[in-house]
Amino acid sequence: MGYKIKSRIWIESDNNVLLGEGRVHLLKAIHKTGSLSKAAKSLNISYKKAWQLLDSVNKSAKKPVTINSIGGKGGGGAELTEYGISLIEAFDEINKNCWAFLDKQLEKFERI
Question: Could you tell me which residues come within 8 angstroms of residue 39 by beta carbon, excluding any fewer than 6 positions away?
Fold first, then answer.
């Protein structure tokens, strides 16, 4: 019988979610597309939902996570700050280490 451990992690600040998998996917999509609107479309979420998630991240973070430019004739845009990129990298490393730990713990369960 094959067992699996299921888990999701998120990082909170003052009882507000700073980062979780969904927010990290959004930040990565912003980094790739250079736009909150394009990032939202690529993730099949509404612009409003994406804006709320990004606003929540920026309010919970120690420093700005994105630099936004206002739309208009040339269009607006969004890009990640160095701090934002560092947050993604740290979250990905924590998540990877968490899964490695859980896989090791599952070995104990399977020996029973």
Answer: 26, 29, 30, 32, 33, 50, 78
